Structure formats: structure tokens, C-alpha cells
Amino acid sequence: MKPDPVTLTPSGYSALVLGASGLVGQALTDRLIQDPRYNQVTCLVRRPMPSRNAKHRPVVIDFANLQAYEGYFRVDHLYICLGTTLKAAGSRAAFRKVDFEYIHIAAQLARSQQVRSLVWISSVGANANSLNFYLRTKGELENAIFRLPGLKGASAVRPSLLIGERKMSRPVERISTVIMKWISPVLMGPWRKYRPVSASEVAKRMMELQAFE
Fold first, then answer.
1. May I ask the CATH architecture of the domain 13-160+197-208?
2. Rounded distance, CA 25 to CA 201, Å?
3. Rg for the chain (alpha carbons), in Å?
4. 76, 108, 111, 113, 145 from 150: Cα distances, Å
5. Secondary structure tally for the chain: helices H, strands E
6. Mapping DSSP to helix (H, G, I), strand (E, B) and coil, where does residue 37 land?
7. Which phi and psi (to 5°) does residue 163 adopt?
8. DSSP string across 122-167
């Protein structure tokens, strides 16, 4: 049985996080629950996670039935940190389900619940016309969300390689991180966006893009 959706309180901001157990999601949740502007931070997750403090509320859901949790989207700010890899997903279809379908559905739920603003993680190089499946999917998602009529304050962050300690081992990413850290100082001007970035920096940027009044 699903727990009741969050009841909003009259003061402070409310936030909803999807993908709170990931690298950026963890860093973002830490920032949100420490930020005095927020009085509630709800995290929709696939597996149980401990509550960090009184305003942190983890809720286990079935992402394949995300529409059933529409009530949880009645918040000020939506943060979407969902994402996987082709290797972890096992197929292009499974990857697209997480990195496109779930996020697109979340944006539609945000629109129906009149979320003040939402931010999600895309990727540097996202392009709907790219020959690269990963970048093409990210670009198609950007187009789909930005074209949703009636959606308020939608923003995407486009990080390069993420730096941080992951729960799952990703040898290729570890090697890439070492290489990118070595060449990062020479990435200047238009190439600067390809520098590796920490999960904490991405989380900080996501919060900067939200609508605070």
C-alpha cells in the first residue's frame, strides 16, 4: 500500500527528488535537507533508504507505474536525477525507459500538479540528431520536455564526466576520469564544458536553477 502524498505546510519550500540514491541525487539530497529554505524534501526511490532528518521523507515506489504517484508532485520544486547506463540497463529499450520515459512522465506530472519549476540532468553534447544513442536520447528528451505546453520553469543541467564515489563499479568511467583530470587544465574556452565535474557542483547548479521568490 502506498503512503499518503505529502501535505504541504504554509511556510518554506517543498522539494521532490527522483533518483536520490544516485551520485548526484545523494549530493543534492544532502544540500536540500541542510538548506533552511526547504521545510520538506520527499525522495521517490526504488529501494528503502533511511530518513536523514524530520523534513526528509523517502518513499519507495514502482517507477514503472509512476503515474500512480501523481500526488507527490504537488511541490514547489522537482529535481530529477534519474539515469542509468547501457551496460546496467542491458538494452537500448531498457536504457530509454529510464533516461527518457520516466523523466518525460515526471515532467508531465509536474505540469499537471503545477510545480513551480523543475530541473533534470541531461548531458554535455545532448543532441536529438546525434549519431550517438546516448546523446541522441538526451537530446530527444530535452526537446520533448521543453515543448510541453503549460510546463513552468523547466531547466536542464548538462554535465560532462561526473566525479565521485559510486556504489556500482564502473571501470571505464574511472579510467576516463583519470585521463580527463590530466587534460582538464587545457580544456579552455568552448572546450571548458567538457571538464569533469563533481556531483556536488552539479547539485549546486540544479538548486541555482530553481525558482525562489
1. 3-Layer(aba) Sandwich (3.40)
2. 12
3. 17
4. 16, 10, 7, 11, 11
5. 7, 8
6. coil
7. -105, 135
8. --TT--TT-SSHHHHHHHHHHHHHHT-TT--SEEEE---SEES--S
* Spatial separation of the C-alpha atoms in residues 54 and 43, rounded to whole Å: 13
Locate the domains of the chain by residue range: 13-160+197-208
Is residue 32 within 8 A of residue 210, CB to CB? The reply is: no
Residue 32 contacts residue 41 (beta carbons within 8 Å): yes
pTM: 0.84
Query: In terms of Cα–Cα distance, which of 39, 69, 44 is closest to 54?
Result: 39
Tens-place pLDDT, residues 91-130: 999 999 999 999 999 999 999 999 999 999 999 999 999 9
Report phi then psi at 121, rounded to 5. -95, 120
Q: Quick one: cell of 7? A: 501535505
Calpha distance 12→47 (Å, rounded):
28
How many angstroms separate the Cα of 11 from the Cα of each of 6, 40, 54? Answer: 14, 10, 15
With vertex at residue 200, the alpha carbon angle to CA 167 and CA 211, rounded to the nearest 5 degrees, is 125
Q: Can you read off the three cell numbers belonging to residue 68? A: 500512480
Asked if residue 22 has pLDDT above 60, the reply is yes
Cα–Cα distance for residue pair 35/73, rounded to 1 Å: 20
